[in-house]
Amino acid sequence: MNEFRPKKPKSHFLDNDRRRDFRLEKLFENFLWSSRFLVLFAVVSSLAASLALFFIGTFDVVKVVLELFSYALGLGSKVEIHGEVVGTIIGSVDVFLIAVVLLIFSFGLYELFISHIDAADNTESSNILDIGSLDVLKDKIGQVIIMALIVKFFQVILTMHLETIMDMLVFAGAIGFLSLALFLMHLGKKFTHDIE
Q: Are residues 133 and 185 in the same domain?
């Protein structure tokens, strides 16, 4: 009876092997593609850190406003609070900028790895979610970080006491380099837009 069974060609077995390999490859690729959801840990963590910093910045500003009310009513013990108020408010701006960095980072990661945020299409927001690649995300975050560093520099400068000519020269040089950095950042953005 075995003599009458038609012999299957070698190509038949190769096709079956290929099909098995293809199924295994497809399963692995599906698993690999699904692993992108691990990015959600970074998205949620960045969002939580951003919310925490927004809360801290808001708390600092509210505290300063309450101190100002007590100072205005003559209940405050401090005679001179101008420097402290300005320093705290600038510090809050710095905290807000870092919170924005974390927020942009969480938006960008979600858009790049998970899905387009459809809710953003229905709003008249800025192009903050216009993130097409990791390079664009790095550029956006880099710009906000530079602004945060500039604000921090301004906060530190307010507490400095300039006593010698050398202090004044260092202060002027720092402002000059800061202005140059802002100019180069603006020039880089303009150059990038011209190329696109």
A: no
Same domain, yes or no: 60 and 81: yes
3-state secondary structure of 3: helix
Helices 82-109 and 134-159 sit at what angle, rounded to 10 degrees? 170
Q: Which residue has the tokens 């205005």?
A: 72
pTM attached to this predicted model: 0.68
User: What gap in Å lies between CA 76 and CA 65, rounded to an integer?
Assistant: 12
Domain membership flag for residue 8: no
Highest mean pLDDT among 2-6, 12-16, 111-115, 148-152: 111-115
Number of H helices, E strands in the chain: 5, 0
CA distance 140 to 188: 12
168 with 120, same domain?
no
